[in-house]
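Ticket 4471: requesting a sanity check on a complex prediction with flavin-adenine dinucleotide. Repro inputs:
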Amino acid sequence: MGTAEHEVVIVGTGFGGMGAAIQLGRLGIESILMLDQADDVGGTWHLNTYPGIAVDIASVTYSYSFEPNPRWSRLYAPGAELKAYARHVADKYRLRRFMRFRSTVERVVYDPRSRLWTVHVAGQEAVTARILILATGYLSHPKRPDIPGLDSFAGKVIHTAEWDHEYALEGKRAAVIGTGATAVQLLPEIAPRVRHMVVFQRTPIWVAPKIDPVIPPALRGVFERLPISQRMARMASSTLLELMMVTGALHNKQLPFLTRSMEKRCAAHLARQVEDPELRRKLTPGYSFGCKRPTFSNDYYPTFLRDNVQLVTDPIDHIEPDGIVTTGGQKHVIDTLVLATGYKVWEKGNFPAFDVLGKDGQELGAWWDANRFQAYEGITIPGFPNLFNLPSPYSFTGLSYFFTIEGQMKHVARCLGEMNKRGARSFEVTPDANDDYLRDMRGRLASSVFLNGNCAPANSYYFNQHGEASLLRPMPTLQALWRAGHFPLSHYRFE
Ligand SMILES: Cc1cc2nc3c(=O)[nH]c(=O)nc-3n(C[C@H](O)[C@H](O)[C@H](O)COP(=O)(O)OP(=O)(O)OC[C@H]3O[C@@H](n4cnc5c(N)ncnc54)[C@H](O)[C@@H]3O)c2cc1C
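Returned structure tokens:
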């Protein structure tokens, strides 16, 4: 048996990777290496700094339950506050000593003889680990659209995940491609700055009114002195969001009025803000609420009423050095192109982020492709011992991602605790337990909006290339948390 250089290697220093490291600390594990290709902590909130970025889940809910933050300035904190919170967590839990930045993992390989993982890092010596935790995120690899001529564009191209703050938008003729959750936050911020902005929309998005009050210093003081008050606010906000975003989507068959009432609420919001019936029609989604992550904004629709903003719904045919041409042959001359086109999700390079070779030399991405996307309790995979893959299929319940992270922390603790108790050197989920979980997930989807609603026109990243809604874990958030603490340990083989 070999000896590992590190008991645990974690790839990713976002909230997922940091949650895992905090849990390892609670288990008394100190031999940890955290690798990240970025140059600081925070993951999503370090990488995304586009104008208008903010959480779309109330901040009392979008944070660790064990690390409440009484300093949020508003109900939906801006991105910079999430980045500051990530720095605070890294410092408070003394995680920086484990972190190595500018380290891109290219490939990880399991050796069944030594029962160790070898982690290959670009331009650095490979490292070995007994346990590997992949916390590479599910929205962390920016996606450029596949549009003919994009590379020939002679002006400035900015992807929202790589915002260039040095570039002045003032006086520019800009185009924005994409009208997803990012565009909803971005467009109202940049429209007043540019001379002209043309927005290319493939799929309209459901936008609900945003109730986003400033949290007055007096209330922040109460949260600081009386943490129970913030815990109660967290419980209230989480319950409401679970009802709006999770229950309605999961039980669409039994409770169709929940998603329909949200659709009505969003449609009324649009009608209040946009009088022109033609513009309203273009901005109205043709898919059921819940098929895609909904967003909240009070100034997205009014952006399209500005004289310098134009909404284009004709598909893009190609891009030329000085503009975008639609299939109807109309050319829009621009000097700045903003890609609000989101992230890779189901393709290789994200799910998984790089080659992951298991005990039989099987590569995870190829295995998923051939056997359908699956992971036991959304975290472990048969054939891949000593591996926790946090961004897995059927892992995110759809509420705040922090609930998923905390469930996964519990799961890690139970597996590693048992391994330690038995003096084992490896753990692996059994194929039967994995099959049962997949069957359960697919059975539960039968009542969901993903199967009962009209999701085809949504172009939603919840669906993989085989048309399966395999991103979300179709289960109430509390049940998923309970399961993390109670799954039978017999579902694992410890050796
Ligand atoms: C703009 C935006 C807004 C969001 N808003 C919300 C919200 O309001 N509510 C919500 O619940 N969720 C939201 N999300 C989802 C969000 O990604 C999760 O909530 C959470 O931040 C994920 O944390 P993570 O640590 O798992 O992954 P990430 O934060 O994505 O971190 C992954 C890390 O892995 C690193 N990495 C990736 N590949 C490699 C590699 N090959 N080698 C080394 N390092 C690598 C990356 O550099 C990154 O630092 C949002 C996502 C985005 C993009």
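Notes from triage: The CA atoms of residues 1 and 114 lie 5 Å apart. Leaving this open until the requester confirms.
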